[in-house]
Amino acid sequence: MQQLLETKDNDFTWRDFQARNNSELVAILGNFVNRTLVLTGNYYGGKVPAKGNYTEVENTLINFIADTKKQIGESIERYRLREALSLLMDIARAGNKYLADLEPWKLIKTDAERTATVLHAALQVTGALSLLMEPFLPHTGKKLRDMLGIDNHQWDDHHIGNLLTEGHQLNAAALLFDKIEDPAIEAQIESLLQPKLQLLPLRHKQQQLLQQKQNQNHQNPKQLLKNS
Protein backbone atom coordinates (compact mmCIF):
# COMPACT_ATOMS: atom_id res chain seq x y z
CA MET A 1 0.00 0.00 0.00
CA GLN A 2 2.81 2.41 0.82
CA GLN A 3 4.12 1.78 -2.69
CA LEU A 4 1.03 3.52 -4.08
CA LEU A 5 1.19 6.62 -1.87
CA GLU A 6 3.00 9.86 -2.66
CA THR A 7 4.16 8.34 -5.93
CA LYS A 8 6.21 11.34 -7.04
CA ASP A 9 8.92 10.05 -4.70
CA ASN A 10 8.55 6.41 -5.68
CA ASP A 11 9.04 4.22 -8.72
CA PHE A 12 6.24 1.67 -8.74
CA THR A 13 7.15 -1.90 -9.60
CA TRP A 14 4.98 -4.99 -9.44
CA ARG A 15 7.72 -6.87 -7.58
CA ASP A 16 7.77 -4.26 -4.80
CA PHE A 17 3.98 -4.31 -4.69
CA GLN A 18 4.05 -8.09 -4.25
CA ALA A 19 6.69 -7.89 -1.52
CA ARG A 20 4.81 -5.24 0.46
CA ASN A 21 1.49 -7.05 0.12
CA ASN A 22 2.94 -10.35 1.31
CA SER A 23 5.30 -9.06 4.00
CA GLU A 24 3.10 -6.33 5.47
CA LEU A 25 -0.61 -6.67 4.65
CA VAL A 26 -0.66 -10.47 4.77
CA ALA A 27 2.07 -11.31 7.28
CA ILE A 28 1.47 -8.48 9.77
CA LEU A 29 -2.01 -6.98 9.55
CA GLY A 30 -3.84 -9.97 8.11
CA ASN A 31 -2.04 -12.44 10.35
CA PHE A 32 -2.92 -10.57 13.53
CA VAL A 33 -6.59 -10.20 12.61
CA ASN A 34 -6.91 -13.82 11.52
CA ARG A 35 -5.28 -15.24 14.67
CA THR A 36 -7.45 -13.08 16.91
CA LEU A 37 -10.72 -14.00 15.22
CA VAL A 38 -9.91 -17.69 14.82
CA LEU A 39 -8.88 -18.08 18.48
CA THR A 40 -12.00 -16.23 19.61
CA GLY A 41 -14.11 -18.54 17.46
CA ASN A 42 -12.40 -21.66 18.75
CA TYR A 43 -12.45 -20.78 22.46
CA TYR A 44 -15.58 -18.65 22.85
CA GLY A 45 -17.87 -19.53 19.98
CA GLY A 46 -17.17 -16.22 18.27
CA LYS A 47 -18.33 -14.10 21.21
CA VAL A 48 -16.23 -11.37 22.79
CA PRO A 49 -14.89 -12.89 26.03
CA ALA A 50 -14.95 -11.16 29.40
CA LYS A 51 -12.52 -8.29 29.86
CA GLY A 52 -11.46 -9.40 33.31
CA ASN A 53 -8.68 -7.39 34.87
CA TYR A 54 -6.40 -5.49 32.53
CA THR A 55 -2.76 -5.49 33.58
CA GLU A 56 -0.22 -2.82 32.75
CA VAL A 57 0.42 -4.69 29.49
CA GLU A 58 -3.17 -4.27 28.28
CA ASN A 59 -3.44 -0.68 29.50
CA THR A 60 -0.24 0.22 27.67
CA LEU A 61 -1.53 -1.41 24.49
CA ILE A 62 -4.88 0.41 24.58
CA ASN A 63 -3.20 3.75 25.35
CA PHE A 64 -0.84 3.14 22.45
CA ILE A 65 -3.84 2.79 20.13
CA ALA A 66 -5.33 6.09 21.30
CA ASP A 67 -2.02 7.93 20.97
CA THR A 68 -1.32 6.45 17.54
CA LYS A 69 -4.80 7.32 16.30
CA LYS A 70 -4.06 10.97 17.08
CA GLN A 71 -0.73 10.77 15.25
CA ILE A 72 -2.38 9.16 12.21
CA GLY A 73 -4.92 11.97 12.06
CA GLU A 74 -2.21 14.61 12.25
CA SER A 75 -0.17 12.92 9.52
CA ILE A 76 -3.19 12.75 7.21
CA GLU A 77 -3.95 16.43 7.79
CA ARG A 78 -0.37 17.22 6.68
CA TYR A 79 -0.77 14.92 3.65
CA ARG A 80 1.97 12.64 4.98
CA LEU A 81 0.17 9.49 3.94
CA ARG A 82 3.10 7.10 4.01
CA GLU A 83 3.82 8.17 7.58
CA ALA A 84 0.16 7.69 8.53
CA LEU A 85 0.07 4.22 6.99
CA SER A 86 3.29 3.28 8.76
CA LEU A 87 1.67 4.28 12.06
CA LEU A 88 -1.33 2.09 11.27
CA MET A 89 0.98 -0.85 10.67
CA ASP A 90 2.67 -0.12 14.00
CA ILE A 91 -0.65 -0.89 15.71
CA ALA A 92 -0.85 -4.21 13.89
CA ARG A 93 2.75 -4.96 14.87
CA ALA A 94 1.94 -4.18 18.49
CA GLY A 95 -1.02 -6.53 18.31
CA ASN A 96 1.11 -9.30 16.83
CA LYS A 97 3.75 -8.83 19.51
CA TYR A 98 1.08 -8.89 22.22
CA LEU A 99 -0.24 -12.25 21.04
CA ALA A 100 3.26 -13.65 20.54
CA ASP A 101 4.28 -12.61 24.07
CA LEU A 102 1.13 -13.84 25.83
CA GLU A 103 0.57 -16.98 23.69
CA PRO A 104 -3.15 -17.44 24.40
CA TRP A 105 -3.09 -20.78 22.53
CA LYS A 106 -0.88 -22.08 25.36
CA LEU A 107 -2.34 -19.96 28.14
CA ILE A 108 -5.81 -21.46 27.62
CA LYS A 109 -4.51 -24.72 29.12
CA THR A 110 -3.52 -23.16 32.43
CA ASP A 111 -5.39 -19.87 32.88
CA ALA A 112 -8.74 -19.56 31.12
CA GLU A 113 -9.60 -16.26 32.78
CA ARG A 114 -6.36 -14.59 31.69
CA THR A 115 -6.81 -15.99 28.17
CA ALA A 116 -10.22 -14.31 27.98
CA THR A 117 -8.65 -10.97 28.91
CA VAL A 118 -5.89 -11.38 26.32
CA LEU A 119 -8.33 -12.07 23.50
CA HIS A 120 -10.67 -9.32 24.70
CA ALA A 121 -7.79 -6.84 24.37
CA ALA A 122 -6.72 -8.28 21.00
CA LEU A 123 -10.25 -7.81 19.71
CA GLN A 124 -10.16 -4.15 20.79
CA VAL A 125 -7.00 -3.73 18.73
CA THR A 126 -8.74 -5.41 15.79
CA GLY A 127 -11.73 -3.11 16.12
CA ALA A 128 -9.50 -0.05 16.19
CA LEU A 129 -7.66 -1.22 13.07
CA SER A 130 -10.95 -1.64 11.21
CA LEU A 131 -11.68 2.08 11.70
CA LEU A 132 -8.18 3.49 11.35
CA MET A 133 -7.55 1.76 8.02
CA GLU A 134 -10.53 3.54 6.48
CA PRO A 135 -8.51 6.32 4.75
CA PHE A 136 -6.18 3.78 3.13
CA LEU A 137 -8.17 0.57 2.71
CA PRO A 138 -11.88 1.48 2.89
CA HIS A 139 -13.17 -1.77 1.42
CA THR A 140 -10.96 -3.86 3.68
CA GLY A 141 -11.99 -1.79 6.69
CA LYS A 142 -15.65 -2.38 5.83
CA LYS A 143 -14.98 -6.09 5.39
CA LEU A 144 -13.35 -6.29 8.82
CA ARG A 145 -16.11 -4.29 10.52
CA ASP A 146 -18.65 -6.65 8.97
CA MET A 147 -16.77 -9.59 10.48
CA LEU A 148 -16.71 -7.82 13.84
CA GLY A 149 -20.33 -6.68 13.56
CA ILE A 150 -19.46 -3.06 14.42
CA ASP A 151 -20.25 -1.22 11.21
CA ASN A 152 -22.10 1.51 13.15
CA HIS A 153 -18.81 2.94 14.46
CA GLN A 154 -16.94 5.87 12.90
CA TRP A 155 -13.39 7.27 12.88
CA ASP A 156 -14.21 9.89 15.54
CA ASP A 157 -15.48 7.30 18.01
CA HIS A 158 -13.95 8.33 21.34
CA HIS A 159 -13.85 4.75 22.62
CA ILE A 160 -11.40 3.56 19.97
CA GLY A 161 -9.88 1.03 22.37
CA ASN A 162 -13.20 -0.30 23.66
CA LEU A 163 -15.44 -0.87 20.65
CA LEU A 164 -16.46 -4.45 21.39
CA THR A 165 -18.44 -5.30 24.50
CA GLU A 166 -18.41 -8.58 26.39
CA GLY A 167 -20.73 -11.16 24.83
CA HIS A 168 -20.94 -9.38 21.48
CA GLN A 169 -21.34 -11.96 18.71
CA LEU A 170 -18.83 -11.77 15.90
CA ASN A 171 -19.63 -12.84 12.36
CA ALA A 172 -17.75 -15.47 10.35
CA ALA A 173 -14.05 -14.76 9.92
CA ALA A 174 -12.37 -14.60 6.53
CA LEU A 175 -8.91 -13.73 5.28
CA LEU A 176 -8.44 -9.99 4.85
CA PHE A 177 -5.74 -10.30 2.20
CA ASP A 178 -4.59 -12.94 -0.25
CA LYS A 179 -0.93 -13.69 -0.79
CA ILE A 180 0.19 -12.64 -4.26
CA GLU A 181 2.07 -15.47 -5.94
CA ASP A 182 4.77 -15.10 -8.58
CA PRO A 183 2.60 -16.22 -11.55
CA ALA A 184 0.14 -13.37 -10.90
CA ILE A 185 2.94 -10.80 -10.92
CA GLU A 186 4.53 -12.33 -14.00
CA ALA A 187 1.18 -12.06 -15.79
CA GLN A 188 0.96 -8.36 -14.92
CA ILE A 189 4.49 -7.71 -16.13
CA GLU A 190 3.78 -9.66 -19.33
CA SER A 191 0.63 -7.61 -19.98
CA LEU A 192 2.68 -4.41 -19.72
CA LEU A 193 5.38 -5.72 -22.04
CA GLN A 194 2.99 -7.08 -24.68
CA PRO A 195 2.12 -3.72 -26.34
CA LYS A 196 5.84 -2.92 -26.59
CA LEU A 197 6.55 -6.30 -28.16
CA GLN A 198 3.78 -5.74 -30.69
CA LEU A 199 5.38 -2.46 -31.72
CA LEU A 200 8.79 -4.00 -32.37
CA PRO A 201 8.03 -5.26 -35.95
CA LEU A 202 6.63 -1.82 -36.87
CA ARG A 203 9.66 -0.04 -35.48
CA HIS A 204 11.92 -2.45 -37.32
CA LYS A 205 10.11 -1.71 -40.59
CA GLN A 206 10.39 2.03 -39.96
CA GLN A 207 14.10 1.68 -39.34
CA GLN A 208 14.53 -0.26 -42.60
CA LEU A 209 12.72 2.42 -44.61
CA LEU A 210 14.79 5.13 -42.94
CA GLN A 211 17.98 3.27 -43.73
CA GLN A 212 16.93 2.84 -47.36
CA LYS A 213 16.24 6.54 -47.66
CA GLN A 214 19.59 7.41 -46.15
CA ASN A 215 21.32 5.03 -48.55
CA GLN A 216 19.61 6.67 -51.49
CA ASN A 217 20.75 10.12 -50.32
CA HIS A 218 24.32 8.90 -50.20
CA GLN A 219 24.44 7.42 -53.70
CA ASN A 220 27.37 8.27 -55.97
CA PRO A 221 26.81 11.77 -57.46
CA LYS A 222 27.43 10.42 -60.94
CA GLN A 223 24.77 7.80 -60.38
CA LEU A 224 22.35 10.48 -59.18
CA LEU A 225 23.01 12.54 -62.35
CA LYS A 226 22.54 9.47 -64.48
CA ASN A 227 19.26 8.65 -62.75
CA SER A 228 18.07 12.20 -63.26
Can you characterise this structure?
By secondary structure, this protein is mostly helical. 68% of the residues lie in helices and 0% in strands. Helix 5 runs antiparallel to helix 6 (138-148). The protein is globular, with a radius of gyration of 28 Å. It starts with 13 loop residues before the first helix and ends with a helix.
Keywords:
228 residues; mainly alpha; Isoleucyl-tRNA Synthetase, Domain 1; 8 helices; 68% helix
Q: How helix-rich are the residues, as a percent range?
A: 55-70%
Which band does the percent of strand residues land in? under 5%
Q: Helix count, per DSSP?
A: 8
CATH architecture of the largest domain: Orthogonal Bundle
> What is Rg?
28 Å
CATH T-level topology of the largest domain:
Isoleucyl-tRNA Synthetase, Domain 1
Biggest beta-sheet profile: none
